[in-house]
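Predicting structure from sequence has reshaped protein science. With that in mind, we have picked out one protein's residues alongside their backbone shape tokens:
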Amino acid sequence: MNELSCSNNPQSLFRKYAKLVTCNYCGKEIYRSLSVIKKNKKNYCSYPHFALGNIPYNKGKSKYTPQEKKCLCGCGKKIVSPDKKGRARQFFVGHSLYKPTTSWCKGKKLSEDHKKKLSEAHKGKIAWNKGKKSIQTGSKHWNWKGGIWPRSNKTVEYKTWRQAVYERDNYTCVSCGGGNGILEANHIFPWAKYPQSRFEVNNGITLCNSCHLILRKHEEDYAPFFQEIVRSYNYAN
């Protein structure tokens, strides 16, 4: 069965309905049926050779030829359609046929008589929001947390405490000894858990930004080590 259907076997019965032709890509002689030869102008021995030799007619050609025309909104500006991405253009960038409607009273001034009539018409009416606060504040706010004092590095107390910690540590990171990086004043005991010692100089230690990131959330584990450093500074002074 394979011998009869094989197109490259010259001894097969397929030769009765086939013709010997050459591949248009490599020049190899092959047998092709008369119907295939009639349908296709070119002959190839395999599909890879067909793909390599059969170049599409529109290869390298754009679908549309760019043309210059005017914007449809009537501004007179010229546009190129289609653009570089093949998109059809009808309007200049930001232009359209839609024109937003404006208020009938825009640009008009009310006369004094009209103003008096409006004033008299509104007399005796109570505004719906009179006596009401647009923004709830204090304990009436939905996100009230019991009067927590906000942490801020812009207060005078915080700036004074930070400066005292820097001066005591000679503007040097106590962990790595570096002083060229970004320095930060760290609380030995956390700010939230020990509010009574927030602005105590002995509760502060100078760290660089990289060391502070490593020790963050582990301040209590390193508290004895930092306290010993603070005591040594106090004894030295």
User: Anything to note?
Assistant: Strands lie at 18-22, 29-33, 67-70, 78-81, 183-187, 204-208.
